[in-house]
Amino acid sequence: MSPVLVASDLDRTLIYSSAALALTMPDARAPRLLCVEVHESRPLSYMTETAAALLTDLGDRVVFVPTTTRTRKQYQRINLPGPAPTYAICANGGHLLVDGVADPEWHAAVVARLAEECAPLEEVREHLAATADPVWLRKHRVAEDLFAYLVVERELLPEEWVKELAVWAENRGWTVSLQGRKIYAVPKPLTKSAAVREVARRTGAALTLAAGDSLLDADLLLAADRGWRPGHGELADAEWTAPGITALPERGVLAGERILREFLKEAGQA
Questions:
Q1: Minimal CA–CA distance to 18: which of 2, 38, 1?
Q2: Mean pLDDT taken over the chain
């Protein structure tokens, strides 16, 4: 039998910072949480204990592929429960990890495509540096020499600036995504879906399932046979949907639990 491939975004899809947990129930009814990421000796990301058990079960049944915009270094500090994934996708598709090691041929092909199809990173980086206001800008980062992002004070960030940046980027073959306190500027050809298709080719998967919450996950969801998005995030805010995509009502860490249940249910029927 051909394996089932499950490609899932991580942050605000399967794992959640304390600010993104959305624990709206009474304290006594809050789910027990498992810390799955520590950074500089501080707990950073969580999932429910129930979700951890579901992910362990899922990892035993399918080809589970963490699919993230995080850099390799940021991804590698996550300690997910269950079997270690054979494949992982980092830097929004810029790196394909096989047993934890980046595939150099895949990365070289991605870099060549970006050089052909969109404005150079340096042009985008300079524009961000010139137009971001120090009043709300906290950090300016370049990730894996592939894309750029800003860390901002969200409550001080003017919506109009983000819209203007999106138009400017669009004309240069880039896309803009606002996720929590981060604004990403990412080349359009740098996609999670391309890397997922490559994993599907290598594994011979006949069915691909996916989940994600942000604009950068839309192509991933569209490339899958079935996809799910939580009730929070850019896609939910835009009421985005497409054939084969299920919009879940759950928000926060409980959405991650629901997504894993849906993966298991669909994989069990394959």
A1: 38
A2: 97
